[in-house]
Amino acid sequence: MGLTYSSVIDAGRDEVFSWHTRPGAITRLTPPWQPVTVLREAGSLRGGRATLTLPGGLRWVAAHQPDAYDPPNSLADSLTSLPLPWRHTHQFSPAGEGATLVTDVIETRCRPGCCGSTLVYRHRHLAADLAALARARAIRPDPDPLTVAVTGSSGLIGTALTALLTTSGHLVVPLVRRLPRAGERYWRPEDPAAELLDGVDAVIHLAGASIGGRFTAERKNEIRASRILPTRRLAEVAAATPGLRAFVTASAIGGYGPDRGEEVLTETSPRGAAGPRVRAPAAARRRGRQGNRPGQPVRPAGPADPGEGTSSASRNSTGRCGTCSAASRDRAEDRRRRQRRERNHRWLCAVTDRPRDAVRGG
Question: Domain 2-139, what architecture?
């Protein structure tokens, strides 16, 4: 059993093949819905190994095959870490003026359904990244590679952005708050070193505490503290660094309104109109018709109420007490966790072509 998928990419064959050889290519080609994390990229497509982590403690080790490495015509890798026959060959051939026919051939016992959507994603993503690179070169022909320092490079946005920059030929220098590895620089957010950005052309600042979770007063202070002072200190170092061309920082834009089109916004721009009005839940609207308006305090529980003994101060806007709401959230989180495990398990069974009870992590 095998699978073959082809598409025409609007880029020359040399450029398409070269893109695959750059750091970050495997990260850009990994679909976000797959329970897979790139642990280590191959040092060489001629004979290196790429390692990905899978659920259940499994690892996917793809060993590149020297006999199939024929730039810019083809390259191939084989799975060596699982008892599953798998050989993935990438073929590149001319398809007219400035275009390349990219063909993926997978030889395996894996069911085609578990691989087809992945190949469609890879080809579309490859085409989009090369189109973006072409647009950048049209703006600045024959650009020299840039050295870009990135904070928050291991986050959701940072991982994708770092891979996009490296596959475009630029050098990324992650600024980290732990012991730095090769190519990284140690960054103290509250007091960055004066020489932190020496030799850097641009800075992209993404670091900050996650906005996930409940917005308690303590959480709000943590989010604010992780963004205000570190951004100011890093900007001061950037302003004092000779040769640095750009400083980009990412933050929330919701305060400007839900849709401002192509309008250029600055710190002095007025706040936009509020977003669309959100309707209260049906139960809250019914209580509103009975005398309690959504958004106002809920009546204290009377003797005949299910929440007898619970004061109005401990109830939330849906009329539930805090304990019931927390229990409901816990049950919902448990349900999502079970669904996620089941989804990952089905994916592993499909990839390894093994019975469900033979795969760990179910």
Answer: 2-Layer Sandwich (3.30)
